[in-house]
Amino acid sequence: MNKIGIFCSASDDIAPLFMEKAKELGAWMGEHRKWLIYGGSNCGLMEATARAAKEKGGMIMGIVPTKLEEKGAVSELLDVTFHTVNLSDRKDLMLQESEILVALPGGVGTLDEVFHVIASATIGYHSKKVIFYNIGGFWNGLLDFLKGLESQHFAHRPLSNFFQTANSFEELTGMLDK
């Protein structure tokens, strides 16, 4: 996998552990000459991942919606920039450009992106997976919820067909290095 999409928080006001892990992933991506494809923000885990990747020689693709540009919140690290009108276009382009997608800790925007990928995979638009990078058990509640959807028959097939979970950096990089 050479083109890795990252979904994550744009908040700077989160636990340092999440920043450290985002930087670790970005550095690994740069060292292994992976493309980072992300939302293009200059804040939070987005910028931390991009900066670490860039410092280690990685290439950065930002998929930037108009509102982000209007707020002056676009990273200066981008090698390639795609401009989008809205978040729906952003999600579609990130999915199109990425070979696999990783969900670091994030808020409702990250959830929206994750569910976009999983929902479109369930009906056959693509066969790409999301990897939940479960730093400190961040995704446990959501993973339990997804299991509940299955047990209550709100999913027509196992949702785990459409995502993987990495509980450590080693697990994550093992999944990405295929």
TrEMBL record:
EC number(s) reported in the record: 3.2.2.n1
InterPro entries documented for this protein: LOG, LOG_fam
Catalytic activity: AMP + H2O = D-ribose 5-phosphate + adenine
Keywords: Cytokinin biosynthesis, Hydrolase
Region forming the signal peptide: none
Enzymatic class: hydrolase
Short name of one Pfam family: Lysine_decarbox
Family under the similarity heading: Belongs to the LOG family.
NCBIfam families membership: Rossman fold protein, TIGR00730 family
Descriptive protein name: Cytokinin riboside 5'-monophosphate phosphoribohydrolase
Organism from which the protein derives: Phocaeicola faecium
Classification of source organism: Bacteria, Pseudomonadati, Bacteroidota, Bacteroidia, Bacteroidales
